[in-house]
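Hypothesis: this fold can be encoded by more than one sequence.
Test: take the structure tokens below, design a sequence, compare later.
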């Protein structure tokens, strides 16, 4: 097991509710994860866009008192990175390994992990380089495809994934073009 800086465990089974008081505490199925991939595509991903998206994620995390690190990359360039109180360099390592999965497979790290779990297969790429755990999502631009990654680390994997996808959906609702 690899506990993160806050003592949470990104390898915790996702059938364990992260917050039993939340009504949306069910695991998304693969079809829902694929729908997110199709729908959560930005009109553009310039530096100003990635700043606004990253700032939105940080604002939501601060509002909820979440100890997370947020990272956005365009290609290999890190264009946004914020570590909130309660995080450590371990979160940067999780970010690197989750984002490596997205770059390799072109899909959310959580979706890649769920596909392996659904087939009863272990994710067998080098765990020092890859983590098929929730929290990294492809930075997708409509009509272009994947241009980078947006990643959160610090919560249980499903919550990391949900924070990213919730904020992408909010960003899209606020910045439709």
């Amino acid at each position: 097991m690899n506990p993160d800086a806050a003592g949470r465990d990104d390898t915790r089974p996702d059938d364990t509710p992260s917050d039993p008081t939340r009504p949306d505490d069910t695991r998304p199925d693969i079809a829902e994860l694929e729908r997110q991939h199709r729908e959560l595509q930005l009109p553009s991903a310039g530096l100003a866009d990635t700043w606004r998206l990253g700032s939105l994620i940080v604002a939501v995390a601060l509002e909820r008192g979440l100890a997370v690190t947020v990272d956005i990359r365009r290609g290999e360039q890190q264009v946004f990175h914020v570590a909130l109180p309660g995080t450590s360099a371990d979160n940067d390592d999780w970010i690197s390994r989750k984002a490596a999965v997205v770059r390799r497979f072109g899909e959310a790290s959580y979706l890649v992990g769920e596909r392996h779990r659904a087939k009863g297969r272990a994710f067998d790429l080098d765990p020092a380089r890859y983590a098929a755990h929730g929290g990294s999502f492809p930075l997708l631009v409509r009509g272009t495809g994947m241009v980078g990654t947006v990643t959160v680390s610090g919560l249980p994997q499903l919550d990391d994934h949900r924070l990213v996808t919730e904020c992408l959906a909010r960003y899209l609702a606020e910045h439709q073009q």
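The two ends are 43 Å apart (CA to CA). Strands lie at 69-74, 77-83, 136-141, 145-153.
Hypothesis status: open.
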